[in-house]
Amino acid sequence: QHLVAPPGPPAQAIVSAVNACAAASRWPRVLALLWTFSENLAQPDLTACNSALAACERGRRSWHRAMRLLHNMRSTLLKPDVLSWNSLALSCLHSSQTRKLLHVFDHLLQQGLLELRTHGK
Fold it and tell me: Which H or E run includes 29?
């Protein structure tokens, strides 16, 4: 199966390919495309990274790839947003990685990105 690049700059073509593969839950291909992007062109943007994280979310046993991708985003000063963290949390949940999921929640609480609310009185 071949992806045809749309007209425009090469970076736009790779982002389009990342989005297409993510929509098809082909996370290994998404990560390979992101690697190509970073080696040959420039740092992937937040949209491309979130697409890759969403693809990892749908793949069983891909939580470690999602965690590595989010770590790489942070190390290159690309700030993960709520969609990034949500995809990582869902990757951990779908892979039955309860401890990793709790670690993600703990990080979000410490950073003030998550607020716990109690119901009732």
Answer: helix 27-40
